[in-house]
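Quick start: what a row looks like.
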Amino acid sequence: MKKLIKNALIVNEGSTRKGAVLLNNDTIEQIYWEELPSECDAEVIDAEGLYLLPGVIDDHVHFREPGLTDKADLASESAAAVAGGVTSIMDMPNVQPQTTTLEALQQKFALAATKCHVNYSFYFGATNKNTALLPLLDSTEVCGVKLFMGASTGNMLVDNKQTVRTIFETSPVLVAVHCEDSSRIKENAARIRKAYGETASIHFHPIIRDAEACYASSSIAVELAKKTKARLHLLHLTTGKELELLSDLPIQEKRITAEVCLPHLLFSSDDYATLGSAIKCNPAIKEKHEREALRQAITTNRIDVIATDHAPHLLSDKQGGCLQAASGMPMLQYSLISMIELVREKVLSLEQVVQKMCHAPAQLFQIEKRGFIREGYKADLTLVDPSITWTLTNEDIKSKCGWSPLENRTFHSRVVKTFVNGHLIYNQGTINEAPKGEKLHFKR
């Protein structure tokens, strides 16, 4: 049966207008800006007072399956995603076994086909030994190649310079890079360990993984991408200095793009005092002036997309200081409403949020028929109530790890419905359909 979403405030392609959207199976059939059709055989959803947005596309998540499913899995984290208005995700390769073979990649696609509530693709993990596999990747199905130019969770560091160059030269898809200088991090960690021992405070985390470590690696990646003409995507930037490596060109004209992640827009090093290791992540959350530089950059073309680096760990894994606690936190379920809080604080506009979280990821990865409210596009949509004030409690969390660094935070909007491929998957707190996510397809 068709669905008609009427009286919505449609936020799309730089404007907000009242209108209606007719869904026919998995597709947006028609958009009405003036009068509705006199006769329409459709289920009517009255969205008076609600914002209708394209579904969020998050290009950076860790759903932990296979192999780490005590922390999270495809079913639980895609449920958290759809509860937060996210309708498509791109998942990282540092699982067990790592997604560094074609067989492991196909295993993940097969798992997602039966378990994922949202649309999906997977990064292929580059290593020092698997560059021969890169030309064999299907560029219409694989979102990118993930390259760790700095060690993080999973021990997938690629530290051979010639291998890095080969990856840049031969990848048929964009190369998404984690940039931190491992030698500097090791030196900093050794100094802190010697002075303060293994239980050194979490406050030293941004000193170990400092701004210089980020820039040293990012600058090398950018220089190499320019030399090889590679398609480079810099993940989770955390410093103002790294922004100097980027251009203000429109996204369609770039071969070097960049992402900022939610923790680095919400938190600063001041928050370690109250949140401790709960907000430990790599690269580290840094000083407030770095956060302010990132916030300013998302209002321009310098930062292209906003993602989460959603990385669930059990709370038991998050205990300890800078040398002990696991890095990463669950952020996906509350990414959209957190950004709407920044709209309320006048950091950016709601139209800019939609550009960075919905339109730009679709453009950057060349995703077919998603990321916009357009006739003929897939019906991935979310309805947000901007008039609800509520406080996040543990009972609301759908992520399998069962906690959030945003607990006890008050929000002033709420996702109320999310449609994936035309199916009303999330409705007022409930996941009410079996998984309907589809494999993402890329125009390449």
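That is the whole record. Residues 2-52+375-431 form a domain with the Urease, subunit C; domain 1 fold (CATH 2.30.40.10). The mean pLDDT is 96.
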